[in-house]
Amino acid sequence: MPDNPEFYASEDMEKARRSLAHGEGGPEFGPWLTKAAILIVDDEPGMRNFLMRTLGPRCKTIETASNTKEAEAKLDDHHFDIIILDNIMPGQSGVEWLAAQRSVGFFGDAILMTAYADLETAIRALRAGAADFVLKPFRSNQILNAVARCLDRIRLQRENYVLRHELQSASDVRCCDRLVGESKVMGQVRDTIERVAPLPTSVLFTGQSGTGKEIAARALHALSDRQDKPFVPVNCAAIPADMIESELFGHVKGAFTGAQASRDGLMLHAQGGTLFLDEIGELPPALQGKLLRVLEDKRVRPVGAERERPVDVRFVFATNANLGELVKAGQFRADLYFRINVIQLHLPPLKDRGEDVYELAQLLMQRLSQQLGMPPIPICERTRSKLARYDWPGNVRELRNVVERSLILGRFPDQFGTEVVSETAADSSLAEVERRHVLSVLQTVDGNREEAARLLGISRKTIDRRCADWDA
User: Fold this and answer.
1) In this predicted structure, what is the pLDDT of residue 19?
2) pLDDT: is 59 or 345 the higher one?
3) What whole-number distance in Å separates Cα of residue 417 and Cα of residue 14?
4) Cis preceding-peptide flag for 393 (omega within 30 of 0)
5) Beta strands 203-206; 343-346: pairing state
6) Which of the four pLDDT bands, split at 50, 70 and 90, describes residue 164?
7) End-to-end CA distance of the chain, in Å?
8) CB under 8 Å to 144, separation ≥6 — which residues?
9) What confidence tens digit (pLDDT) does each residue in 14-25 have?
10) Phi-psi region of 446 (alpha: psi -120 to 50; beta: other; left: phi over 0)
11) Which of 86, 333, 379, 438 could connect to 42 by a Cys-Cys bridge, CB 3.0–4.6 Å?
């Protein structure tokens, strides 16, 4: 045992005491266990058989290994949520092997088993990255509760990380949470989503900014067999270029300055579910090849890691750019474009959706009046006619802004954007309407492009490109 008296009062000591004291108490185990993938590593056939009988009927996937070499081969071929690992084995101890796996990119939970109630071993196990520590012999409920604690922690970590990412990257609240409208074009969109959803095929949503590509992607996920697994949205334009690789693929401790701990990336947080890569045309060229490799091999290599990790994710993409033109300009890899462009689904602009505008305005009025604590404003026939005749260059996001502004002011404006609603405005080219609208928003925020991008619901890069094209 260590001679340092501070050791006995340390946080590691308290964790070790709690681990050694684990009994049959703990969280209830239930249906969530059926989705777990577990690797058992033990050189004793009797223990492997006991764990297989205990966990096998309750879990989705159970694999066993009689030594660490077999275990490494299993890790190369499968994704595991948890490793249940014996400490005393021929050659390398479980603690040593676990520490080595952490250093090459294994981030899953590990439960260490040992027949020796030794505090120093418990502390070494915790420092090596073990999530729990059980003493042999143990009862089936003890190992089930240890697994339950690990799965509960994994679920909370993933949910919290994805939620933090969504909150950090969101430039605006989603306009609504479902596909709205009975127009013919939206009926075709729904039909295609229902047809494609059960398949594992990648889908590319195209359309102008604000047409509801993320909502369509969520509808696709909700209709798929992955609906009970995570839906992880990523805006490729909203993450700084020097951070996006780590955000997507994860990293090991020490991989770069500031990487003080290993961390899963968003691809692994989406394990079993759907990863939605919005504005895929903004993905830096250096990462396009790495993404193509993931799509082909279904394996992820975290930054700084030596080992690739299997990943089971459905990829859904979206863009408001013309990827074909970006390929011709050498800004997007042709092989990646052909790989993601299997099923392309175009989201129509709001101006092409007829009476959907009125239905959307009603829904937004209901939602926003509740959020703002203000009474809804009736949409009279005159306003309904103006809503139908306006071109909506900002699509649903612009409609949301008009409804919110109307709630605050107590009436609908006589004009939307900078355009008086008239036949002349309806005849204007969409490009010119967009130019005037964007420049008008920029003027209201004193030229602050970050703020203008937030209000318009587009990326700062898009604003910069538009202004360069307009020499503004």
Assistant:
1) 46
2) 345
3) 62
4) no
5) parallel
6) low
7) 71
8) 29, 33, 54, 55, 58
9) 454 444 444 444
10) left
11) 86
Lookup result for tokens 């223990």: 47
Instruction: Locate the DSSP E strands across 117-216.
Output: 132-135, 203-206
Which tokens is 325 given? 């033109």
CA angle 140, 141, 143 (to 5 degrees): 70
Task: State how far the Cα of 166 lies from the Cα of 426, in Å rounded to an integer.
Answer: 36
Alpha-carbon span 364 to 180, nearest angstrom: 11
- Chain segment 123-148, per-residue pLDDT in tens: 777 777 788 888 888 888 888 888 88
Give the predicted TM-score (pTM) of the model. 0.62
Q: Which amino acid is at 341?
A: N
Indicate whether 171 pLDDT > 50: no
With b for 16 or more beta-carbon neighbours within 10 A and e for fewer, the 91-107 pattern comes to eebbbebbbebbbebbb
pLDDT at 117: 63
Contacts 24+ apart (CB under 8 A), 154-159: 154/81, 154/82, 154/108, 154/109, 155/32, 158/230, 158/264, 158/269, 159/230
- 145: closest CA among 306, 18, 38, 25? 25
- The CATH number of domain 5-155, selected from 3.40.50.1380, 3.40.630.10, 3.40.50.2300, 3.30.450.20: 3.40.50.2300
> Can you give 310-364 as a three-state secondary structure string?
ECCCEEEEEECCCHHHHHHCCCCCHHHHHHHCCEEEECCCHHHCCCHHHHHHHHH
Name beta bridge partners: 111.
84, 132
Structure-token match 């006589």, residue found: 414
Class of domain 170-346: alpha beta
- Provide the phi-psi class of 105: left if phi over 0, else alpha when psi is between -120 and 50, else beta: left
Domain limits of the chain? Answer: 5-155, 170-346, 351-470
Q: Report the CATH number of the 351-470 domain.
A: 1.10.8.60
Place of tokens 């989406």: 270
Give me 391's structure tokens. 């071109």
Check if the beta carbon of residue 278 is closer than 8 Å to that of residue 461: no
Rounded-to-integer distance, Cα 51 and Cα 59, Å = 11
351-470 and 170-346 share a CATH fold: no
Measured CA to CA in angstroms, residue 463 lies from 143, 206, 288, 431, 439 at distances of 55, 19, 23, 14, 10
Which residues 6+ apart lie within 8 Å of 113 measured at CB? 42, 47, 84, 85, 86, 87, 94, 134, 135, 136, 138
For residues 189 and 219, what is the distance between their CA atoms, to the nearest angstrom?
11
